[in-house]
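Researcher: I'd like a structural prediction for the single chain below. Treat it as a standalone chain; there are no partners to consider.
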Amino acid sequence: MKTTRMTTLLTTFFMLCFYGGAYAATWVNTSGATNTKWSNSKTDPGWDTDYPNGQGAVAIFPASSKKNSVTMDVDCGVTLGSLILDAGTQNTDFQFGSSVSSGATLTFDQDGNGPGYAVISNTSKRARVNLGADYEVNLADDLFLVNRGDENYTPQRTYSISITGPITGKGNLTIDSDQIYTNGCVAITGHKNNSFTGETHVVSGCLKVQNAQGNKPFGIESNIVRLGRHGGSEAKILLDGSSPKISNPIVVEGGAVGELSLGVVVLNAATFTSTFAGALTLNGPVSFDVPLFFVKNNTSYYGTNVVSGAISGVGRLTKKNNGVLKIASESNDWSGGATVSNGTLVVAAGSTLGTGPLDVCDGATLDLASDVTVASVSLNGKLQQKGVYAALGSDDPKAFKVAWLTGVGKLTATEGRVPGLSIIIR
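Model: Treating it as a single chain, here is the predicted structure.
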């Protein structure tokens, strides 16, 4: 549920105290200058006291500060407990850059012993917070990215938080956002030097991973990525680029709803694919989406999501909107089943669909590249006879030919060795 900006600021301070307590001091920057340096200098940066730097330090840029950019001019970087921005209705990005030739390190450390949360909070109506590529963001503590908007302000999708440079350290990264729009996602890059060792948890809203191909957006590849929280709103990870790939294990939390999506596509390419190569654990339902496409020579092109890691758990998997979802793991055993609501679900050779019910909706396509065994087949809710079903072009003389199957494989209806498993055509 969205909150007012004042409520969010109070909530932020509550989290600071509750999760590891007291912050060292608070600095408020009230300078009206649009561009300023971080430290005290002849061009007064507007801090009410000395510049913030130290464990638990809280730096606040209120709407009255009207900042467009802040330059970090401290050679050894700075340490913060929290960075809070309320840029009002500014329509320009709030950029953090560095004047230090080797780049600056921005260390987030609330209390130094782990249980506390450092916070970056953006409660602006328009402005985005961007920690630039010349920063190293060091997670000495867990870092909470809180992205809040104003529910009474339109448009409600242009504010976000982005980390462009490398992320290092031992802390966890948590994203809590109101926004599910592409332009409003909290964003991190697949920086080649990302090396943090904590988990990533998208509690709510959208996390956009930019330039994920060949890099490590979530730190070391064994780090777990979690989606959602029990009873919470949808949590989404959107992969950006021409052929993004992540190898980290992904866990959809129990009682949560997750989405894995292919984002901005590269033009002038007929195909574009995102790959989830890590294990996928479904403690709650997850959907796969290809929301964007482009038209070239009057032809529409949609992307493909590939799941090559093993799928386990009890949650349901849904293929929605256009494009393709390809299941390409040989060791899937999830029991929640799958729904093909739109587009095409491809089951690759040697892969499996777990043990749950399979629901293919009207207009969607199930493409079998291998034999698939189910307990029963239902069409429009009517149980069909047991046997072998195949696409119209199949050369199997004993198979029941059905128009809703494509590919070279066949589907076998058995004696019910997997109770409750069915295909439903609506």
